Amino acid sequence: MLEEVWNLRRLDILPELCQRDACLHLPKGRVEGRDTMRDTFIVPVLEAFPDIVHEIDELIVQGNRVAMRFHGSGTHRGAFAEKAATSKRLDYAGITIFHMRDGKVSDIWNYSNWSEAFAAL
């Protein structure tokens, strides 16, 4: 998902990767539904950071769970979270845990230092 959706911007394959009712759990709330996740989370980030790229640092698969440690960076070129573009580079890192159901992502728990890195722009 990280490579296809975030790095290659292949939003069209989300239905192949995620359940319709997939839920993204974030430290400050959650986003319910694959389409809502795309429209309110993924697209705004890609628009505000058009060159954002991520790398997987570690991947652990156990049964229907996948744990991923990653880092990413991009340039703040568009408004995001009520903050105008700064043209500054954002670097952040995190851990995501995916739960799978019938071969697709059903839940995503994401913990990262995005908020702190974004506030520092």
Write the SSE topology.
Layout: H1 2-7, H2 14-17, E1 18-26, E2 29-32, H3 34-48, E3 53-62, E4 65-75, E5 89-101, E6 104-112, H4 114-119
Parallel strand pairs: 1-6
Antiparallel strand pairs: 1-2, 3-4, 4-5, 5-6
Task: Indicate the percent of residues in helices.
Answer: 25-40%
Q: Please identify the structural class as seen in this structure.
A: alpha+beta
Q: Helical element count?
A: 4
Number of domains: 1
The chain-level mean pLDDT equals 97
Q: Please write the string of helix (H) and strand (E) elements.
A: HHEEHEEEEH
Organism: Sulfitobacter sediminis
InterPro entries: Cyclase_SnoaL-like, NTF2-like_dom_sf
Protein name: Ester cyclase
Explain what you see.
- There is one protein chain.
- With 121 residues, the protein is of the alpha+beta class.
- The chain has one domain (2-119): Nuclear Transport Factor 2, Chain: A (Roll).
- The protein contains 4 helices and 6 strands, in the order H-H-E-E-H-E-E-E-E-H.
- The chain has a 6-stranded mixed β-sheet.
- A hairpin with a 2-residue loop joins strand 3 and strand 4 (65-75).
- It is globular, with a radius of gyration of 14 Å.
- The two termini are 27 Å apart.
